[in-house]
Amino acid sequence: MEPNNEQAQGLYRLCYRLTNVIYPGWQYRPIQLVRIDERTGNVYVLAGESDFEIKPTGGYEP
């Protein structure tokens, strides 16, 4: 199973924000794991002490 286009774009935006120290309001966090849940189709990202879920619509939430 692969992420759809919206999820791939959401993953790109999230990774950019997590790893870019210059982005205002976000603190640098190393990305440790990216995995797609085959049951739900959501993409999970583990970054530092936070985890994020990217929905099929491309939106993400901690």
TrEMBL record:
Extract the InterPro entries matched here.
DUF6888
Superkingdom of this entry's organism?
Bacteria
Q: Where is the DUF6888 domain?
A: 2-59
Stated name of the protein: DUF6888 domain-containing protein
Query: Which species?
Result: Chamaesiphon polymorphus CCALA 037
